[in-house]
Amino acid sequence: MGTEKETGSNSYENNIKGSSYIIKECTLESLEGVIEVNEKELPEDYPYFFYKSILDNFPESFLTAVNNDNKIVGYVMWRVERIPSMNNLKIINKGHLVSIAVLNEYRRKGIASKLLEKSMPKILEKKINEYVLEVRVSNYGAIDLYKGLGYKIDSIKKKYYRSFYIFIQACLVFGYCS
Ligand code: COA
Description:
The chain is an alpha+beta fold. 25% of the residues lie in helices and 39% in strands.
Protein backbone atom coordinates (compact mmCIF):
# COMPACT_ATOMS: atom_id res chain seq x y z
CA MET A 1 0.00 0.00 0.00
CA GLY A 2 1.60 3.32 -1.09
CA THR A 3 5.29 4.10 -1.40
CA GLU A 4 8.07 4.58 1.11
CA LYS A 5 11.32 6.57 1.07
CA GLU A 6 13.98 6.63 3.80
CA THR A 7 14.48 10.23 4.99
CA GLY A 8 17.11 9.73 7.69
CA SER A 9 18.07 7.17 10.28
CA ASN A 10 14.86 5.46 11.41
CA SER A 11 12.70 7.99 9.59
CA TYR A 12 10.55 7.11 6.58
CA GLU A 13 8.31 9.16 4.34
CA ASN A 14 5.23 7.18 3.36
CA ASN A 15 2.79 8.05 0.68
CA ILE A 16 -0.32 6.34 1.95
CA LYS A 17 -3.58 6.56 0.06
CA GLY A 18 -2.52 9.84 -1.61
CA SER A 19 -1.17 11.69 1.49
CA SER A 20 2.34 11.76 2.81
CA TYR A 21 3.40 11.05 6.40
CA ILE A 22 6.75 10.68 8.06
CA ILE A 23 7.08 7.76 10.45
CA LYS A 24 9.85 8.57 12.90
CA GLU A 25 11.05 7.95 16.43
CA CYS A 26 9.46 10.04 19.14
CA THR A 27 11.61 12.73 20.76
CA LEU A 28 11.29 14.64 24.00
CA GLU A 29 9.98 17.61 21.97
CA SER A 30 7.24 15.49 20.36
CA LEU A 31 5.90 14.06 23.64
CA GLU A 32 3.41 16.89 23.99
CA GLY A 33 1.94 16.05 20.55
CA VAL A 34 1.74 12.37 21.47
CA ILE A 35 -0.08 13.18 24.71
CA GLU A 36 -2.53 15.38 22.79
CA VAL A 37 -3.39 12.50 20.44
CA ASN A 38 -3.75 10.13 23.40
CA GLU A 39 -6.01 12.47 25.34
CA LYS A 40 -8.19 13.08 22.31
CA GLU A 41 -8.53 9.49 21.18
CA LEU A 42 -8.29 7.19 24.20
CA PRO A 43 -10.02 7.19 27.60
CA GLU A 44 -6.95 5.96 29.46
CA ASP A 45 -4.55 8.84 30.18
CA TYR A 46 -1.04 8.39 31.52
CA PRO A 47 1.08 10.81 33.55
CA TYR A 48 3.94 12.56 31.74
CA PHE A 49 6.60 10.50 33.54
CA PHE A 50 5.06 7.31 32.12
CA TYR A 51 5.57 8.48 28.51
CA LYS A 52 9.00 9.76 29.42
CA SER A 53 10.06 6.44 30.95
CA ILE A 54 8.95 4.57 27.81
CA LEU A 55 10.82 7.09 25.69
CA ASP A 56 13.94 6.65 27.85
CA ASN A 57 13.82 2.85 27.87
CA PHE A 58 12.29 1.88 24.51
CA PRO A 59 12.91 4.81 22.13
CA GLU A 60 13.36 2.68 18.99
CA SER A 61 9.81 1.33 19.14
CA PHE A 62 8.17 4.59 20.26
CA LEU A 63 7.16 5.95 16.86
CA THR A 64 5.11 8.90 15.65
CA ALA A 65 3.33 9.63 12.37
CA VAL A 66 3.79 13.25 11.34
CA ASN A 67 1.89 15.01 8.53
CA ASN A 68 3.08 17.67 6.07
CA ASP A 69 2.39 20.44 8.61
CA ASN A 70 4.68 18.72 11.13
CA LYS A 71 1.68 17.76 13.25
CA ILE A 72 1.69 14.46 15.13
CA VAL A 73 -1.32 12.51 13.90
CA GLY A 74 -0.55 9.13 15.45
CA TYR A 75 1.83 7.22 17.69
CA VAL A 76 2.66 3.78 18.97
CA MET A 77 4.59 2.83 22.10
CA TRP A 78 5.81 -0.54 23.38
CA ARG A 79 7.65 -1.86 26.40
CA VAL A 80 9.15 -5.19 27.42
CA GLU A 81 7.52 -7.04 30.31
CA ARG A 82 8.37 -10.35 31.96
CA ILE A 83 5.10 -12.27 32.11
CA PRO A 84 3.89 -15.87 31.58
CA SER A 85 3.93 -17.18 28.02
CA MET A 86 0.72 -17.72 26.02
CA ASN A 87 1.60 -21.40 25.61
CA ASN A 88 2.77 -22.37 29.12
CA LEU A 89 3.44 -20.67 32.42
CA LYS A 90 7.12 -20.04 31.70
CA ILE A 91 8.04 -16.41 32.43
CA ILE A 92 9.28 -14.83 29.21
CA ASN A 93 9.96 -11.41 27.73
CA LYS A 94 6.96 -10.03 25.92
CA GLY A 95 6.67 -6.96 23.77
CA HIS A 96 3.62 -5.23 25.24
CA LEU A 97 1.84 -2.75 23.00
CA VAL A 98 1.22 -0.04 25.57
CA SER A 99 -0.73 2.33 23.35
CA ILE A 100 -1.51 3.18 19.74
CA ALA A 101 -3.78 5.91 18.42
CA VAL A 102 -4.39 7.89 15.25
CA LEU A 103 -6.37 11.16 15.15
CA ASN A 104 -9.92 10.50 14.00
CA GLU A 105 -9.63 12.58 10.83
CA TYR A 106 -6.53 10.65 9.70
CA ARG A 107 -7.90 7.15 10.15
CA ARG A 108 -8.34 4.36 7.55
CA LYS A 109 -5.29 5.59 5.64
CA GLY A 110 -2.99 2.81 6.80
CA ILE A 111 -1.16 4.92 9.42
CA ALA A 112 -1.65 2.52 12.37
CA SER A 113 -0.64 -0.42 10.17
CA LYS A 114 2.53 1.40 9.17
CA LEU A 115 3.32 2.36 12.80
CA LEU A 116 2.96 -1.31 13.81
CA GLU A 117 4.88 -2.59 10.80
CA LYS A 118 7.82 -0.33 11.69
CA SER A 119 7.73 -0.71 15.49
CA MET A 120 7.25 -4.48 15.82
CA PRO A 121 10.74 -5.39 14.47
CA LYS A 122 12.23 -2.77 16.80
CA ILE A 123 10.73 -4.21 19.98
CA LEU A 124 11.65 -7.69 18.70
CA GLU A 125 15.30 -6.58 18.81
CA LYS A 126 14.87 -6.42 22.62
CA LYS A 127 14.87 -10.27 22.62
CA ILE A 128 11.18 -10.77 23.20
CA ASN A 129 9.45 -14.11 22.60
CA GLU A 130 5.89 -12.89 22.08
CA TYR A 131 3.94 -9.75 21.36
CA VAL A 132 0.92 -8.99 23.54
CA LEU A 133 -1.77 -6.33 23.69
CA GLU A 134 -5.16 -5.68 25.26
CA VAL A 135 -8.15 -4.18 23.51
CA ARG A 136 -11.73 -3.55 24.56
CA VAL A 137 -14.13 -6.19 23.27
CA SER A 138 -16.16 -3.36 21.70
CA ASN A 139 -13.21 -1.88 19.79
CA TYR A 140 -14.01 -3.67 16.53
CA GLY A 141 -11.79 -1.46 14.36
CA ALA A 142 -8.68 -2.11 16.44
CA ILE A 143 -9.51 -5.83 16.68
CA ASP A 144 -9.69 -6.02 12.85
CA LEU A 145 -6.42 -4.13 12.61
CA TYR A 146 -4.62 -6.60 14.93
CA LYS A 147 -6.17 -9.69 13.34
CA GLY A 148 -5.05 -8.41 9.94
CA LEU A 149 -1.48 -8.30 11.26
CA GLY A 150 -1.59 -11.92 12.47
CA TYR A 151 -2.52 -11.47 16.13
CA LYS A 152 -4.67 -14.19 17.70
CA ILE A 153 -7.10 -13.80 20.60
CA ASP A 154 -5.59 -15.45 23.68
CA SER A 155 -8.08 -14.72 26.45
CA ILE A 156 -10.73 -12.34 27.77
CA LYS A 157 -10.02 -10.44 30.97
CA LYS A 158 -12.91 -8.99 32.90
CA LYS A 159 -12.83 -5.55 34.48
CA TYR A 160 -9.45 -4.69 32.98
CA TYR A 161 -10.10 -1.07 32.13
CA ARG A 162 -11.16 1.26 34.89
CA SER A 163 -11.46 5.00 34.99
CA PHE A 164 -13.31 7.57 37.01
CA TYR A 165 -16.31 7.63 34.69
CA ILE A 166 -16.55 4.25 33.10
CA PHE A 167 -16.03 0.64 33.91
CA ILE A 168 -15.42 -1.49 30.89
CA GLN A 169 -16.15 -5.06 31.78
CA ALA A 170 -13.82 -6.96 29.57
CA CYS A 171 -10.95 -6.73 27.17
CA LEU A 172 -9.42 -9.17 24.74
CA VAL A 173 -5.81 -10.14 25.21
CA PHE A 174 -4.12 -10.68 21.88
CA GLY A 175 -0.95 -12.64 21.42
CA TYR A 176 1.49 -13.09 18.59
CA CYS A 177 4.48 -15.41 18.61
CA SER A 178 7.47 -14.21 16.67
N1 COA B 1 -13.51 -0.40 11.45
C1 COA B 1 -13.21 -1.56 10.83
N2 COA B 1 -11.93 -1.95 10.51
C2 COA B 1 -10.95 -1.11 10.84
C3 COA B 1 -11.18 0.12 11.52
C4 COA B 1 -12.53 0.46 11.80
N3 COA B 1 -12.86 1.61 12.45
N4 COA B 1 -10.00 0.72 11.74
C5 COA B 1 -9.04 -0.09 11.23
N5 COA B 1 -9.61 -1.21 10.70
C6 COA B 1 -8.93 -2.36 10.09
C7 COA B 1 -9.26 -2.41 8.60
O1 COA B 1 -9.10 -3.76 8.20
C8 COA B 1 -8.16 -1.53 8.02
O2 COA B 1 -7.90 -1.79 6.65
P1 COA B 1 -8.79 -1.04 5.51
O3 COA B 1 -8.87 0.42 5.89
O4 COA B 1 -8.00 -1.28 4.27
O5 COA B 1 -10.12 -1.69 5.55
C9 COA B 1 -6.97 -1.98 8.84
O6 COA B 1 -7.51 -2.19 10.17
C10 COA B 1 -5.83 -0.97 8.88
O7 COA B 1 -6.33 0.27 9.38
P2 COA B 1 -5.38 1.54 9.53
O8 COA B 1 -5.81 2.56 8.54
O9 COA B 1 -3.96 1.12 9.51
O10 COA B 1 -5.76 2.01 11.02
P3 COA B 1 -5.92 3.53 11.52
O11 COA B 1 -4.74 4.34 11.12
O12 COA B 1 -7.25 4.02 11.12
O13 COA B 1 -5.88 3.35 13.11
C11 COA B 1 -6.75 2.70 15.26
C12 COA B 1 -6.59 2.31 13.76
C13 COA B 1 -7.45 1.57 15.99
C14 COA B 1 -5.35 2.92 15.86
C15 COA B 1 -7.59 4.02 15.31
O14 COA B 1 -8.92 3.73 14.94
C16 COA B 1 -7.59 4.69 16.67
O15 COA B 1 -6.71 5.49 16.97
N6 COA B 1 -8.58 4.39 17.51
C17 COA B 1 -8.68 5.01 18.84
C18 COA B 1 -7.58 4.52 19.74
C19 COA B 1 -7.63 3.01 19.86
O16 COA B 1 -8.71 2.41 19.93
N7 COA B 1 -6.44 2.41 19.95
C20 COA B 1 -6.32 0.98 20.12
C21 COA B 1 -6.44 0.64 21.54
S1 COA B 1 -6.12 -1.09 21.80
